[in-house]
């Protein structure tokens, strides 16, 4: 998968929080198979740039994905799609 600008996928004025929109967007890519298990996600900084959002917002989205068991974080290595 090639990560490109995703800022158009975020509705800053809508009722859904930005971090939830990011988490939902990444989840949709995982569920569609575009991001298979063990795929490495871009860093927090890279995701913030891709979505044109703050790094803290990305961190909150990733935390939600970790809590849901969708991704795992390996300290010093990155964030990876969890095995199903």
Structure keywords:
mainly alpha, two-stranded antiparallel sheet, 84 residues, Arc Repressor Mutant, subunit A, single chain
Structure description:
The structure is a single chain. The protein is mainly α and 84 residues long. The chain has a single domain, classed as Winged helix-like DNA-binding domain superfamily/Winged helix DNA-binding domain (Arc Repressor Mutant, subunit A), CATH 1.10.10.10. It has helices spanning 18-31, 44-51, 55-67; strands spanning 71-74, 78-81. It has a two-stranded antiparallel ribbon with strand order 1-2. A hairpin with a 3-residue loop joins strand 1 and strand 2. Helix 2 crosses helix 3 (55-67). The chain is globular. The model has no long low-confidence stretch (mean pLDDT 95).
């Amino acid at each position: 998968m090639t990560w490109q600008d995703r800022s158009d996928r975020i509705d800053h004025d809508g009722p859904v929080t930005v971090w939830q929109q990011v988490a939902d967007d990444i989840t949709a890519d995982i569920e569609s198979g575009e991001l298979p298990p063990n795929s490495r996600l871009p860093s927090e900084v890279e995701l913030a740039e891709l979505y044109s959002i703050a790094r803290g917002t990305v961190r909150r989205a990733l935390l939600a994905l970790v809590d849901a068991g969708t991704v795992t974080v390996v300290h010093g290595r990155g964030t990876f799609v969890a095995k199903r």
